[in-house]
Amino acid sequence: MPRDSKAEKTIQEKMFQEMKTRNIFDQAHHYVYSYLDQVFERNVFPTEEAITDLRIFDEEMPIEDSDAEAVIYLLHRYGNPATVASLGGRYFGFVTGSVVPVGLATKSLSTYWDQVSAMYVISPLASKLESVVEKWLVDLFNLPTGTSAGFVSGTSSANLCGLAAARYRLLWKQNWDVNEKGLFGAPKIRIVTGQHAHSAVLKAVAILGLGKANIEFVDVDNQGRINVDEIPDLDENTIVILQAGNVNSGAFDDFEPIIKHARSTGAWVHIDGAFGLWAAAVDSHKHLTAGIENADSWAVDAHKTLNTPYDSGIILCRDSEALSSALHMSAGYIIESHERDGMFYTPEMSRRARIIELWSIMKYLGRDGIDQMISIMVERARQFAQEIRAVEGFSVENDVVFNQVVIRYQDDELTNQVLQKVQDLRECWAGGSTWFGKKVIRVSVCSWATTSEDITRSVNSFKQAILSINRK
Ligand SMILES: *Cc1c(COP(=O)(O)O)cnc(C)c1O
Questions:
Q1: Is the distance from CB of 176 to CB of 187 less than 8 angstroms?
Q2: Which atom of ligand 1 is the closest one to the Cα of 244?
């Protein structure tokens, strides 16, 4: 299209033109393939230069419209090099999943559909897939029949939903409708959880007005598991929050006795299983989650261990009515159907249909594929622990029961230096944390793409870090 005709075209004509020529779609796909060609080999964290170049984005909001190809080019030229290569096999930060290839393809495809998961009438497809995946997950995790699922943005949101359902139900049992009356003057709700509860749990407690200062923290053992003997007396006003997968050590609370006791008192049990709940889907690791089926609600991510695209988490709740009552809304224009209306299980009304990618990955992997993929992650974590332990000065501070390795090099100061150097080298990326007051390096193996060579290569980078520290 000749440049001088630009001014004469309306923005709508221009957009139809993009759709018709498809140039920007071809252009984006071309960039995607070049990204995939290098992402498994390139520096895991962006270079200083790439980060400095991000200044290109510091500009005033443009007044005139731009050329679409130039917009896409800008992202490719400056966005691509500044990405963190968590899609590859040597990103061990936080608990960050890669993406199963079929999930990437599905995301591309379904992006063009742009479906909304609020109600059946907005997307029968999303509604159908949510119903199907709800059943699959209940089955896979061996949860009670009738358990409902809400498809949310992650475990932070899933925890919020689970605790909202708990708050609604416990108060309702005391003739207090929290939706109508709020918390002012309400009977007190107690919260019991471990010292190592994830900060997302504390945040949910705060948002729900339950008060972080009211939390009764229970001491934990040297892996971060709740000491069963130290749990206070429980009652029907109590929410007990347990953990499947400590964010540092990967440890699992001792569910069976705690949940059995809690339920006998009428307490509500919620499990934060962001990445660890997936152990229930793996034959050789499901002993770690024994007893979870007796809890009331479960929060889990798909974007971590299952390697779906971000953002994808799930709230599962035995008491379907409590969940939908806690999150219900109505208005004249909302059309309730006899099929699944997803918005009644989530805080949001409009949500992108992230279910499409979740369905596609579960369909593709099947039970066996999920079992294999996660088993390999655990195997690689163990390999990391074994290889790093063999290097003089390093210690592994946790029992590697799942995909997490907690590493230390002599003392706090040296551990910090090693971590900094490893990050500077960019061969792999791991983050730091504090573990029982000591500075540590966290390695989380959470990518389908991590190979045995990736582990050795990363451990070599740790060795190189030591060399350069000693040389100073
Ligand atoms: C990651 C994580 C969360 C928060 O989940 P998001 O998906 O990041 O919102 C909560 N609890 C645990 C144990 C986690 O590992």
A1: yes
A2: 13
